[in-house]
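Bench log, entry 3. Co-assembly request; chain sequences pasted below exactly as received.
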Amino acid sequence: MSVLEKTRAPEKPAVAREPRVTDEHGRRVRVGELVLRYVLLLAVLALTIGPFLWQLSTSLKGPTEDIYSSPPTFLPGDPTLHNYARVADTIPVWDYALNSLKVATANVVTNCVGSALAGYALARLRYRGRRVATLAFILAMLVPVEGIIIAQFTTMRELGLNNTLIGVVLPGCIGAMNVLLMRNAFLNLPYEIEEAAFVDGANAWQRFLRIALPSVKGTLAVVAIFAFMGAWDDFLWPLIVLSDPSKFTLTIGLNYLHGTFANDERLVAAGTIIAVAPLIALFACLQRYFFRGVGEGAVKG
Amino acid sequence: MAVSGISRVRRQLPTSPWLFAAPGLLVTGAFVLYPFVSTLVNAFTDRRTLIPGQFVGLANFRELLQDDMFWTGLRNSTLYVLGVVPPLVVLPLLLALLVQKNIPGITFFRSAFYTPVVASIVVVGLIWVWLLDDRGLVNSLLETVGAGRVGFLSDQWLLLLSAMAVTVWKGLGYYMIIYLAALGNVPRELHEAAAVDGAGAVRRFLTVTVPAVRSTMVLVGALSSVAAFKVFSEVYLLAGPSGGPAGEDTTLVMLVQRTGTGLTGRVGYASAISVVVFVVTVALMLLVLRADRKEES
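Structure output for the full assembly:
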C-alpha cells in the first residue's frame, strides 16, 4: 500500500477504498512485483514520450537560451511562442496545414464511401465476377506501394494530375485493405435482418443504407481514422508527386524546412510540434478505434 | 432461401452490384494494379519521365549488376531487415507483458507507448535528428556522464544503426498492441500449472508464453521484415536525400526515388530496381512462413 501511495499519489482516495491491487482475474499483485512494474513502465514512458517533450521544450526556448548546454536543461527558462511565429514567417505553414487537412479529409470521405460500397458488394450482393473482384482487392493489398511508386507517378503525369492535391489523394483514396475490412464487417452481420427487409421489399440500396451500414459503424470509424492518419502522416508519395512549394503538405513542408534551415533547431522543433499536435489530440480522443484498427489490420495485412 | 432471395434482387436491379463495387475497382485498377503491371513492363524498357522508351530486354538488369549504388542499396536494405526484425519481434512482446496486467494507470501507459506510432515518420525522424545531433540531447547526456560525444549522424554505420533504432522506437507500440491481443488468448491455467511445477518467470515465459504466441511472432516477423526491406523515410531523414557520406547509406527504395523521379527520371531503370524490391519482398514472406512451418513440425 505504501508503494501505491508513492507511485499514484493523486489517486489516494481511490486506493484507500481498495486496499489491494488486483489483476484482471481478481488476484492480488505482490508489492515487490508492483514496484518493479511501475519502475519499468516509467522507464519506457521516458523513452517513448521523452523525445516528444524534448522537442516541445526546444520549441519553447527563446533565442538567447542555450539549447546545447551540457548537462541539458529540460525546461525552458523563459518559455516563448516566438519560434512558432517564426515558422509561419519562414514557410507558409498554415497553408501547408490546410493542404494536409484537405488531403486527409478527402481521404477519409473517399475511403469510407468507396470501401463501404465495395465491401457491401463483395459481402452481400450476388453477381457474376464477384470472386474476381475480391481477388483484385486481395492482390492490390499485397502489392508493396514503394515498388509501384514510380509507375504511379508516371500515371499521374499522364492524367495531368502530378503536382496537385488531387494527385496526392487519388492512389490511396479507396484502399484495398479498407474494402476487405468492410467486407469482413458485413460478412459478420447476421443475415436474417436483411433477409426480412428484403421480404418487405427493400432493395439493395435501402438494405445497405438503412440496415447494414448502421451496424458496421465501428469498422467504419477505424477506416476513417486510419485514412486520416495515413494521409496526414504520408511522406514518400507527396514527396514524389508534389514539386511546387505552394502545394506542399505539412510533412513535405517540414522536410523542406529541415533541409533549408537545419541549423535552426528551435524553428524545426516548432514546425514538428505543429505537425504532430493535431494527431496526438485525435489519438487522445479516439484511442479505442486506433487500437481496434491495429488488431483488424494486422490480421489482414 | 437466402440464395434465391438474393438472385431475385439481381433481377430487380441488375446493375447495382457493379455500381457498388465500381469506384473501388476503378481506383484499385488504375492506381495499384495498372502501375504494378506497368512497373513490370517498364523494367524492360529505357523509358524516361519525358521519353516513352523502347524495349531493351535485360539491359536494365545487366546494368544493375554493374551498379555499385545498387549493391550498396541492396546491402543496406538487407542489413536493415537483419537489424530491425529481431528487436521488433522480441521487445514489443516484453512490452506487452509489462502492460498486460490491469494495474492502476495502465491504460495511460498503453496509450503513451503507442504515441510514436501515431506521429508522422517525418516528425519522428526530425525529432531524432535533433536528439542525435552532435550537440543534441543524447550527446549532452553522454558528455554529462563522462563519455565522449558520438557522431551518430556523420559515420556511415552509426547512421544506419541510428535509423534502425528510430524504426524500432516507432514500431514498438504497434506490435505491442498486436501481442497484447494474442496474450489475452493464452490460457491462464498453463501459467498456473507451470508455477505449481516450480517454474520461474523466465522459464514460464519461454515454455508457456512464447509457444502460445508463436504464430503472432511469425506474423510480426513477416510484417516487420517486409516493412524493413522497403525502408525509406528514416534513412532519408537521418542521412539526407543523398544517403549519408558518399551515398553509402542509400537504401533500395531511396535509390528508386532518386533514379525514377524528376524530369530526367530513368523510369525504366527505377522499375528494374522496383522489381528487385518485389522479388525480395515476396521471398522474405515465403522465408518467414517456411521457417514457421518447419518449427511446427
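Residues 1-14 of chain B have pLDDT under 50 and may be disordered. The radius of gyration of chain B is 24 Å.
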